[in-house]
Amino acid sequence: MVEFELPEEFDDTFISLIPSQRLHIDELLAVGKIRSYALSMDRSVLWVVVDAQSEFEVMEIIANMPLADYMHPFVSELMFYHTAEKLMQFSLN
Fold first, then answer.
1. If you ran DSSP here, which 8-state letter would residue 32 be given?
2. At 5, which helix (H) or strand (E)?
3. How far apart are CA 61 and CA 5, in angstroms?
């Protein structure tokens, strides 16, 4: 799990990178490299659960994020991560 400390104020460059950050995160979610992505209400902390084999792989994923230069990551290795998975529902038609 990665906890990111975000800047107190977002400059114009930071704000301009948000759409590409969101697209990048959506792509990582789609391929399963990121399991969850959450932002605190005050926008000061971001939590990301990353599915990786090593801390090095986590750092590579972080380095490729458009907002990487603005975020200070703190990586914690999780022993387990439980979540309610959505199951596919089959149509009876």
1. T
2. strand 2-5
3. 16
- Cα 76 to the chain's mean position, in Å? 14
Closest CA to 49 of 68, 66, 32, 34: 34
- CB 1: neighbour CB atoms within 10 A? 15
5-16 pLDDT, tens digit per residue, is 999 999 999 999
For 16-36, the pLDDT digits (tens) are 999 999 999 999 999 999 999
Q: What gap in Å lies between CA 21 and CA 84, rounded to an integer?
A: 26
Determine the 3-state secondary structure of 19 from DSSP: helix
Taking the domains of the chain in order of start, what are their residue ranges? Answer: 2-75
Whether CATH 3.30.70.1060 fits 2-75: yes
The CA distance from 59 to 61, in Å, is 5
